[in-house]
Amino acid sequence: MNRFFRITRKLPGSRPVISTLVALQIVFLMLPTIVVFVVSFQPGDIVRFPPDGLSLQWYYELPDESRYISALWRSVLVATFCMLLSIPIGILAALGLIRYDIRFEKAFQLYFLLPFTVPLVVSGVILLIIFGEMGVIGNLWTVGLALTIINIPFMIWSVTSRVNALDSELENAAKNLGADEIQTFFNVTFPSIMPGVVTGALIMFVLGLNEFIVSLIITTPDIVTLPVLIYTSIRTNISPLIAAVASVYVIVAFLAVIVADRLVGLDELLQS
Q1: Structure confidence at residue 7 (pLDDT)
Q2: Nearest of 164, 155, 162 to residue 115 by alpha carbon
Q3: Are 242 and 234 in contact (CB under 8 A)?
Q4: Residues 94 and 159 sit within 8 Å (Cβ to Cβ)
Q5: In this structure, what DSSP letter does residue 138 have?
Q6: Which residues 6+ apart lie within 8 Å of 201 measured at CB?
Q7: Which family is it part of (predicted)?
Q8: How far is CA 199 from CA 83, 85, 86, 90, 188, in A?
């Protein structure tokens, strides 16, 4: 242990120990993704790490794998549905909770803690029972609705952080100049909370894109999403093709983060 601290003292920065621990955590989190990405270039049919060579063979074969392409598009559709549905819900819920004295406010606050307190498998089973009683199992929109229900607290948190930071005097000034409620909202309130809306929307898209447990419970073979298809595929055969599919999936999620950085900045994303 003493040797560890002697080494870290030689590192640049005012807090070398913390910097070292953060770097180790980043490596620990990135290592599985790096391994999958490297394995996807394996030229043979058997997964090996390190690979025997480097080849784009499996990436060339991806366009011919219609089941993976279809599952990817279904995942994108579900994530888009989840994102679009969460925007009006998040805005109205955040404004209502912050600006108005509403009934059952404590119940709503408890609901916001559900992603951290209720296991996803429990939420999935509950939603499966409800959708089954309604007779809507087997529709892709039910998957998007289920993912919206379990992830909507993240959207509300994101928008709420911007509503709390909004100066109410700006809205009062607009009203004093003759603007009505709708004009004030679209010209003052909405532009001010836009960073939180964009951040929450992108979070909802990524969560909807990557959700596995609830999707596994609710989806049927006809509407299977890509995470579920990858899981069912590796149970029978692990090939570099699956690694290539997973790598493309990671790239899509990474692009969503880049979009968030370009639109609102990562600092704003983390604050939200």
Answers
A1: 46
A2: 155
A3: yes
A4: yes
A5: T
A6: 83, 86, 87, 155
A7: Belongs to the binding-protein-dependent transport system permease family. CysTW subfamily.
A8: 11, 15, 12, 11, 19
The answer to whether 189 touches 171, Cβ cutoff 8 Å, is yes
What's the CATH class of domain 57-271?
mainly alpha
Are 249 and 71 within 8 A, CB to CB?
no
The 10s digit of each residue's pLDDT in 164-190 is 777 777 767 777 777 777 777 787 777
Interval 104-117: pLDDT, tens: 666 666 666 666 67
At 135-166, the pLDDT tens digits run 888 888 888 888 888 888 888 888 887 877 77
Consecutive H or E run containing 111:
helix 105-112
Which tokens is 266 given?
């990562």
Contact 9, 18 (CB under 8 A): no
| Count of residues making up the chain | 272
Task: State the Cα–Cα distance between residues 185 and 17, nearest whole angstrom.
Answer: 48
Alpha carbons 256 and 250: distance in angstroms, whole number: 10
Q: Is the pTM of this model over 0.90?
A: no
**Structure tokens, 240:** 């570099």
Owner of token pair 């880049």:
258
Q: Show the tokens assigned to 183.
A: 């004009």
Query: Whose structure tokens read 């290539």?
Result: 244
- Cα torsion for 123, 129, 133, 136, to the nearest 10°? 60
